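Teaching assistant's notes for section 4

Start the section by putting this record on the projector. Ask students to predict, before seeing the second block, whether 1,3-beta-glucanosyltransferase will look compact or extended. Collect guesses on the board.
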Amino acid sequence: MVSFASFVGLLFLVGFARCANDTNSSAINITGNAFFNSATGERFYIRGVDYQPGGSSNLTDPLASPTICRRDIPVFQELGINTIRVYTVDNSLDHQECMEMLQHAGIYLILDVNTPDSSISRSNPNCSYNTDYLQSIFATVDAFANYDNVLGFFAGNEVINQVNNTYTAPYVKSVVRDMKRYIRTRGYRRIPVGYSAADISSNRQLVAEYFNCGDDADARIDMFGVNDYSWCGRSSFQVSGYSTKMQIYQDYSVPIFLSEFGCNEVPSSRPFTEIGSIYSSRMSSVFSGGLVYEYSNEDNRYGLVQIESETEVTRLPDFYNLKYEYGNTSNPSGGGGYSTSNDHSSCPDYDAGTWEANNTIPEMPSAASAYFRSGAGAAQGTGFLTQDSCYNDASDNDDDSSSSSSSSSSSSSSSSSTSSAASSSGISSSSATPSSSSSSSRESSSSSRGSAAVLETPLFFQIICEMFNMMF
Ligand SMILES: *[C@@H]1O[C@H](CO)[C@@H](O)[C@H](O)[C@H]1NC(C)=O
Ligand SMILES: *[C@@H]1O[C@H](CO)[C@@H](O)[C@H](O)[C@H]1NC(C)=O
Ligand SMILES: *[C@@H]1O[C@H](CO)[C@@H](O)[C@H](O)[C@H]1NC(C)=O
Ligand SMILES: *[C@@H]1O[C@H](CO)[C@@H](O)[C@H](O)[C@H]1NC(C)=O
Ligand SMILES: *[C@@H]1O[C@H](CO)[C@@H](O)[C@H](O)[C@H]1NC(C)=O
Ligand SMILES: *[C@@H]1O[C@H](CO)[C@@H](O)[C@H](O)[C@H]1NC(C)=O
Ligand SMILES: *[C@@H]1O[C@H](CO)[C@@H](O)[C@H](O)[C@H]1NC(C)=O
Ligand SMILES: *[C@@H]1O[C@H](CO)[C@@H](O)[C@H](O)[C@H]1NC(C)=O
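Reveal the predicted structure now:
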């Protein structure tokens, strides 16, 4: 006789074996300058796309809509990617269904925590680095930290987007530090925190060094993204300048990847021949793959697909070219020449006109320490205007007793954030590379196709896995 208890026990064993083997969704770890699948121990190369259908002119959170996820995730799988990067989400919405669909499809998320309204402002960075702002990004961390397929967070994207705004760097570095401390203090998995840099020749190397320097390990990034459009058309490792980048970053101690690539200064469709270089042993000792800019076709014409409706996309020639290149390019074998022997960078000196960032970075606004004790509290969503909220900090006169609930009222007192106060959101309007040029969406035309289920895991195992995951 099999008792009920042993039957349940058997279910758990089956569930355990099944879930333990579901390596698709295992957390990604960092060792040295490379990513690894924590379950299989294999080196992990990002094969990804940047994903923000609607662009900046019609900001929608694609991870809050199961309909959109059901439309796009099978397309990601057909393309052969393992990662998406999303520039802005609404931290007050529910992301569970989409995150689980991504997880079952073996797709990781790199998430920018900023929104256009809640980010470091280039016109007044000191003011924009305030308690309300931290509440916003910490609430975003709270909303995503429990998903194992979150590969990492970006604390900022192209905040430094010119020769002349390097003075913003200390504030972004403070944000990196605060996020890393928040993640640790709240007891979350040690999710990597990084910065995604614009490619500006005068400060390219300085930015990389600055974010990975100094004695305070919390203030150093865990990973570095470079937005790089230097390979155009059928270029080459030498001609594109990739070979030079290999030299610049050869001693870097943390993973580097292309957080945007895919130059579209080509006569017709993009051939994506850089894939063969990026995933070769010529680059794998320094680079861990990258993300193509971008999934949906917006006004700036970088799309792989045309969004037709909430349930349909049309694959463009770029999609097929990229799919072909991925299919024909396997990862370098073994560790790909990754390194564990590099030390963190040394800090660049302050240099007027070139590098105007001090190595003493701002302290966290003291009221924000309440979030470390009790969490960020209620999420305020994308309309939370924080760039001018330093005035709240100043008048608060507070002792740590401020709680997250105070931040909702404070948002209404902020004056409107002007669009000239450029933000660190990836899709802000005035930065150096295409992610920031404004892109407008198109009206969705209505469509006939219903949503198709994409979950391939049989329901039985899903339930077991969920029970299993809840228990451990
Ligand atoms: C895990 O799955 C792979 C194929 O998906 C299979 O080859 C392997 O034997 C499985 N491992 C275990 C321990 O079940
Ligand atoms: C690697 O990942 C596992 C599973 O998430 C985690 O328990 C472990 O602490 C990680 N190791 C490092 C060095 O981050
Ligand atoms: C893992 O990912 C691969 C490739 O995306 C997919 O074919 C496979 O079905 C996934 N396995 C599980 C268990 O989700
Ligand atoms: C930086 O330079 C740009 C032009 O290249 C100019 O529009 C902008 O006002 C300058 N910003 C500052 C803070 O000087
Ligand atoms: C696939 O890539 C290899 C180089 O990795 C190249 O030699 C080969 O020509 C490619 N195949 C096709 C059909 O282009
Ligand atoms: C840089 O920080 C030092 C303190 O370490 C301070 O004395 C100096 O004025 C700062 N320089 C600038 C330009 O902010
Ligand atoms: C930055 O802002 C804080 C309060 O918001 C203020 O106390 C501090 O003096 C400011 N620092 C600078 C350099 O403006
Ligand atoms: C913005 O996007 C949403 C969702 O895709 C869509 O329903 C809406 O019509 C779009 N609005 C504009 C002005 O394009």
